[in-house]
Amino acid sequence: MQPWDFILIEDRALRQTVKDIFDRENQRASENYQGETATLYKSLKLEGILESPLNLCVTCDRTRGGPNVLGRNTIIETDLFSACLAVQNLWLAARAEGVGVGWVSIVDPAKLSELLNLPDQVYPLAYLCLGYVTEFLPIPELELKQWRTRIPLRDLVHYNNWDNRATPPLLEDAISNIGKSSE
Hints:
The protein is of the alpha+beta class. It has six helices and six strands, in the order E-H-H-E-H-E-H-E-H-E-E-H. The protein has helices at residues 12-30, 35-43, 78-96, 109-115, 141-144, 168-176; strands at 4-9, 54-61, 99-103, 122-132, 158-159, 161-165. It has a four-stranded antiparallel β-sheet, with helices on both faces. Strands 5-6 form a two-stranded antiparallel ribbon. It is globular, with a radius of gyration of 20 Å.
């Protein structure tokens, strides 16, 4: 499907404007939290727009391929999912090369679209900051700072339907049977 385009952003003034958009939205987001949670939120490093050597906006052209695109008849958002997979592939490749990636999700997409002169049908799916980092943390930073604990896989896997949780033996059996015939 390839609905994505990549905008490399090196211009300092442009990045400062993106940072200003982030700052406004981050201030609004911080108002959702109170007390200790608000203090913790304000202490989190949620962007590296000016510090990273490269910013990258990944877009999704919602019209690419015309009105009838294979795979989009039933699930129209497949183009967005495809673009998200492009981001994940980029992220995995970057990590393999020792490059850190951060997704700045606290931006107003309309303001970002206007700033980057995006056509109406093009959605700014991801704003990424890329650069070499001094270390990769053993666990995600938001978990390290106790913003949210990672949910164990066993709590997220169901067996045949939502009501049936896959207990560890079922989960292990399912994984060991990957690639075997279901007959």
